[in-house]
Amino acid sequence: MQRSPQPDEGGGSSDRRRELIRWAGLSTEVVASVGISVFLGVRADKWLRLSFPILSWVLPLLVIVAILINLVREGSKKKNGK
After folding, report:
1. pTM score, two decimals?
2. What is the pLDDT of residues 41-80, one digit of tens each?
């Protein structure tokens, strides 16, 4: 007697779709966060009348570091089964 495969068995397309949506959301979050931080950094540099665009560089770098830390934490949670 043969059993018909269930959609969730064996790493089916629903798992792939879920991962694709997860990574698409993450990439959108990264692009939006970096874009907003660059915009705010440029605005802050103009508002403070700085000759060197220090905030335009520092804010996006801080955002990227925070995102990487968040990624490592999420990855370690999933790996440990939490």
Report:
1. 0.70
2. 999 999 999 999 999 999 999 999 999 998 888 878 766 6
Which alpha helices (H) appear in 1-82, and where do they start and end?
Answer: 13-48, 54-80
Whole-angstrom Cα distance, residue 63 to residue 41?
Answer: 11
Q: How far apart are CA 41 and CA 1, in angstroms?
A: 66
Q: Which token pair is 27?
A: 């990439």
DSSP 38: H
**Maximal CA-CA distance, the chain:** 77
Q: What is the DSSP letter of 20?
A: H
What does DSSP assign to residue 82?
Answer: -
Compute the Cα dihedral for 57, 58, 63, 64 and give only its sign: positive
d(CA 64, CA 46): 22
State how far the Cα of 18 lies from the Cα of 75, in Å rounded to an integer: 16
